[in-house]
Structure formats: structure tokens, C-alpha cells
Design goal:
The chain is α/β, with parallel strands linked by helices. Helix content is 30%, strand content 17%. The protein has eleven helices and nine strands. It has a seven-stranded mixed β-sheet, sandwiched between helices. Strands 7-8 form a two-stranded antiparallel ribbon. Strand 2, helix 4 and strand 3 form a beta-alpha-beta unit. The structure holds S-adenosylmethionine (SAM). The site of S-adenosylmethionine has 24 residues, from loops.
């Protein structure tokens, strides 16, 4: 979720990625969708791979990632340090190119998406749809979230560069184990945990004063019962949609 004060292209995962491997574990229901979208592909490039989350089992999987901090937490497999905008591989080196929650961090979205298309005929991209993400209750605690749509690419933006064949909703289960920004929609106390905040680029890249003020307001609302009065029904809901989408493009 982009904000007026966050410069997505300047993501500093060398700084903010330190606790990523403990806070950000692959969510099984999302893994299943990604595996299905990549089925039949044996050579896969994972662009903006981070620690390697969501990479499927395949003959060849190569992660491309700019941050040494993220690469050092990589679970397994081959990786190279690099950026989406200049993938160090010849044309059609892979069957599929995947990218999970990374496009909004790139400095040149068009270049990165064109590179994915150049190296692989199928592209599978996990994005969040800013206009829907904007409805998430957490946004009420942080004023700068209001110009989200101008900062992060949604499905339509991806479609300007890739030939989209399918878009799937990635529901967020109430017990989501990938600590993404909307992971704790039904477990609001989790947002008070500094370790959880640190592994969400949305909160960790916010101005510290703004973050502290918003978190303090949330803590107050939880203590007073105001949060439960307004959103308490969410605690017992199984899943929610806050705009996470799996975009499948190119050849199938
Ligand atoms: C939210 S993390 C997602 C990591 C991983 N895909 C996952 O699902 O856990 C975003 C990743 O994008 C990477 N990134 C930032 N700018 C990039 C760029 N220009 N090209 C490729 N990756 C980039 C960051 O370093 C970070 O590891």
C-alpha cells in the first residue's frame, strides 16, 4: 500500500529486511495458487525474490534480488544479485517469470515488466490492487495512505505491459502466516508488535513520527474497545479481500 510519504522505488531492504525470514513465511493458500499458475513450468525466474518465498518446486529456480540482507536469509536454491529492470539472462531463458509483492518497489516498472516478458513467455505476478487495499481499516490510522493509487501498480497498470490472461483473488485467511501489511486484519493487536511493523515495508518505511502516532491511536482504540465496536466482527471472520491479486500473463 503506497502512501504520500513512501518512496517505493527507494525500498531499503538491506535495512528493513533484517527480520524478514521470521515474520514473512509463505502463506499456504497463496503458495497453492502460485504453484497452480506455474504448473508445467520447469525453468522459473523469481524476480524480487527476497528470501525465496513462494518459489515452487521445479527443475530450475533462480531468484533475482538486489538486497544482500534478503539474499543472506534465502532459504535454499540459486540466486543472483540484480534488479528487475536489467535481468542478467538471455531472451527466453525460462518457462515462467514470477514476482511476488515486489513490483511496487521497482524504480522503473515498465522496464522490469518488459524484462520479465523478454526472459519468459509466462509471467505470474502477485500485486495488491491499491483502490481495494485502501479500504482496509488500518489505513484510517495513517493519513498518508490516502494517495495509494498513485504509487502502487494495480492490475490495470500491469496490463499496460503484459498480456493478462487471468486474475485471481488471493483471499487473506485470518491466520495468514505471511506478515504482509493486511495480514492481521482480524488480529489487530499484532500491529502493535515492533517486529511485525519492521517486516512490513508499508509501516517500516513510514516517517517514524507518523507510525508512532498511528500505532498509539490503534493501541488506545483497542484498550477502550472502540476498535472492537467498529470492527470486532472481523475477529471471527475466516478470510478477507484487501486487494491482493495474482496476475497471470502471457502463454499458458
Ligand atoms: C516485499 S519483498 C518480497 C520478497 C519476496 N518476493 C516475498 O514474497 O517474500 C520485496 C522485494 O523486492 C525487492 N526489490 C526492490 N527493488 C527491486 C528491483 N528494482 N528489482 C527487483 N527486486 C526489487 C526488495 O529488495 C525485496 O526483497
Amino acid at each position: 500500500m503506497g502512501t504520500g510519504t513512501i518512496k517505493w522505488g527507494m525500498a531499503r531492504y538491506d535495512t528493513i529486511g533484517t527480520g524478514y525470514s521470521t515474520q514473512r513465511l509463505p502463506e499456504p493458500s497463496w503458495q497453492a495458487e502460485i504453484d497452480d499458475a506455474l504448473s508445467g513450468c520447469q525453468r522459473i525466474i523469481n524476480v524480487g525474490a527476497g528470501t525465496g518465498n513462494y518459489e515452487p518446486k521445479a527443475e530450475t529456480v533462480v531468484g533475482v534480488e538486489p538486497s544482500a540482507t534478503m539474499l543472506s536469509q534465502r532459504r535454499s536454491g540459486t540466486s543472483v544479485q540484480g534488479v528487475a529492470e536489467a535481468l542478467p539472462f538471455p531472451d527466453d531463458s525460462f518457462d515462467a517469470a514470477m514476482g511476488v509483492l515486489t513490483v511496487h518497489h521497482w524504480s522503473d516498472r515498465a522496464a522490469g515488466l518488459n524484462e520479465m516478458r523478454r526472459v519468459a513467455p509466462r509471467q505470474v505476478i502477485f500485486v495488491f490492487e491499491p483502490l481495494i487495499a485502501h479500504n482496509f481499516w488500518l489505513t484510517n490510522y495513517f493519513g498518508s495512505m490516502n494517495d495509494t493509487e498513485t504509487n502502487a501498480p494495480g492490475v490495470e497498470d500491469i496490463g499496460e505491459h503484459l498480456h493478462i490472461t487471468e486474475v485471481r483473488t488471493l483471499w487473506i485467511p485470518n491466520d495468514c502466516c505471511d506478515g504482509v501489511a493486511a495480514a492481521y486484519w482480524g488480529r489487530p493487536e499484532a500491529y502493535l508488535d515492533p517486529a511485525a511493523q519492521a517486516s512490513m515495508s508499508y509501516l517500516s518505511m513510514m516517517e517514524p513520527d507518523e507510525r508512532a502516532a498511528g500505532i498509539a491511536r490503534l493501541a488506545d482504540d483497542l484498550k477502550s474497545g472502540r476498535w472492537d465496536h467498529e470492527h470486532g466482527h472481523l475477529r471471527n471472520q475466516d478470510k478477507a479481500d484487501y486487494g491482493y491479486r495474482l496476475v497471470i500473463a502471457g502463454a499458458r
